[in-house]
């Protein structure tokens, strides 16, 4: 889904198909527990169409390996007693690095996906050393990095005021073989809203973030549609703007520079601001007539473009993040309604404000890191890395050892479920 880069230590073998297949059932169970913490074992078996024996065995292995914990579930009606599954409080951890235009933050999270910020700073150049130290100290099993810049094939293709392209990502892993995955901040903010925010449960969701420029993502069943090179969602570069204005991307007439701090400055006849985000918040706080008119212009440009995206993508819901909720006034509503195709106006696609606020990209980066490490491929890689580093106490290696033991026992019993679980 997202571009992935390897760890810092160069060549390593990718686990083979058979090794990955062994982790498929465990990966599906971890995914279900992440989506629905507190899911009962009975409901899990039904949802994943697993036999009771396979469910019991997989859950026992994941519990022993430290990923999930079981709690006694209340019995309703005549139902059989069961347990509910929750992320283990002291289970494996992932790290998420949120690089922003003015600072950076490092969060740590378990399977529950809720980050705690453990380090931060203003000098982006200094962050590799601090992140590398945190990786070594905390024994994390994955790291995701959020960039405030477009990415293609895992590379920053255009840096803004800060030169992200020269940031040495290899140094982030502190010399370990930790996997690093990366995403664009607007895409990750959308991922956070789809998993645990204003777009949770939506089949098709469109998220739009206004910061410096505009970005977003189209999500289907909680998965961002990132295109052939991971570069999709650059909605800010749709030509919905003034063709006379050249965008920093090199194109003319982009939508982003109509709605952000640069757009507000142009409407006010002010020079391009050094910090467009701070400039935008200052203008949004003003109540004088020129500021109100400039904001109304940006609001209308946002509403009109959003209607175009809704006409194109037909989402269940639109979520606005960053500065965008502050641009929702009468001018926005009018332009949004006017831009929708006539038949849509009776029941316009609802537009909601994001719930994750300034932490959206951090939450999204955690979700991305967890998606990576709890996939069948991620679990197989983790097991391979741990056995290579001779850390048999690691969560995946423990799981692997248990798995082998269980299989030996099963073979002895010639149990018919072996094949079903293997292909699970
Ligand atoms: Zn552009």
From TrEMBL:
Signal peptide extent: none
Keyword annotations from UniProtKB, A to Z: Kinase, Transferase
Sequence ranges assigned to domain HTH marR-type in this UniProt record: 24-78
Record-annotated membrane-spanning stretches: none
Basic and acidic residues bias locations: 414-424
Region (Disordered) location: 383-424
Molecular function (Gene Ontology), one example: DNA-binding transcription factor activity
Protein name per its UniProtKB record: Putative NBD/HSP70 family sugar kinase
């Amino acid at each position: 889904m997202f571009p992935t880069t390897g760890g810092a230590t160069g060549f390593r073998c990718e686990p083979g198909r058979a090794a990955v297949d062994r982790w498929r059932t465990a990966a599906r169970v971890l995914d279900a527990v992440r989506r629905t913490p507190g899911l009962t074992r009975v409901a899990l078996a039904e949802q994943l169409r697993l036999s009771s024996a396979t469910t019991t065995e997989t859950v026992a292995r994941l519990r022993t390996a430290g990923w999930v914990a079981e709690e006694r579930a209340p019995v309703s009606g005549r139902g059989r007693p069961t347990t509910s599954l929750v992320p283990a409080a002291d289970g494996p951890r992932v790290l998420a690095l949120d690089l922003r235009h003015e600072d950076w933050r490092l969060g740590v999270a378990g399977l529950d996906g809720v980050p705690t910020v453990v380090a931060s700073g203003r000098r982006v150049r200094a962050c590799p050393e601090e992140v590398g130290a945190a990786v070594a100290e905390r024994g994390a099993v994955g790291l995701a990095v959020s960039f405030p810049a477009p990415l293609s094939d895992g590379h920053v293709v255009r840096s803004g005021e800060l030169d992200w392209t020269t940031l040495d990502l290899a140094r982030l892993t502190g010399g370990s073989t930790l996997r690093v995955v990366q995403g664009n901040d607007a895409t990750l903010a959308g991922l956070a809203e789809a998993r645990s925010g204003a777009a949770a449960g939506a089949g098709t969701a469109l998220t739009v973030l206004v910061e410096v420029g505009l970005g977003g993502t189209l999500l289907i069943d909680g998965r961002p549609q990132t295109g052939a090179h991971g570069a999709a969602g650059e909605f800010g570069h749709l030509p919905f703007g003034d063709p006379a204005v050249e965008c920093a991307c090199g194109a003319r007439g982009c939508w982003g520079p109509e709605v952000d701090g640069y757009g507000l400055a142009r409407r006010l006849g002010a020079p391009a601001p050094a910090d467009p985000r701070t400039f935008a918040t200052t203008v949004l706080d003003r109540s004088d007539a020129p500021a109100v008119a400039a904001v109304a212009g940006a609001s209308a440009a946002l509403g009109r473009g959003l209607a175009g995206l809704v006409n194109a993508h037909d989402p269940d819901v639109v979520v606005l993040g960053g500065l965008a909720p502050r641009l929702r006034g009468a001018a926005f509503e009018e332009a949004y309604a006017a831009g929708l195709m006539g038949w849509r106006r009776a029941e316009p696609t609802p537009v909601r404000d994001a719930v994750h606020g300034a932490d959206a990209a951090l939450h999204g980066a955690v979700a991305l890191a967890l998606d990576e490490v709890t996939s069948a491929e991620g679990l197989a890689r983790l097991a391979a890395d741990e056995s290579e580093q001779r850390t048999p106490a690691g969560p995946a290696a423990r799981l692997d050892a248990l798995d082998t033991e269980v299989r030996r026992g099963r073979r002895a019993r010639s149990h018919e479920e072996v094949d079903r679980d293997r292909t699970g």
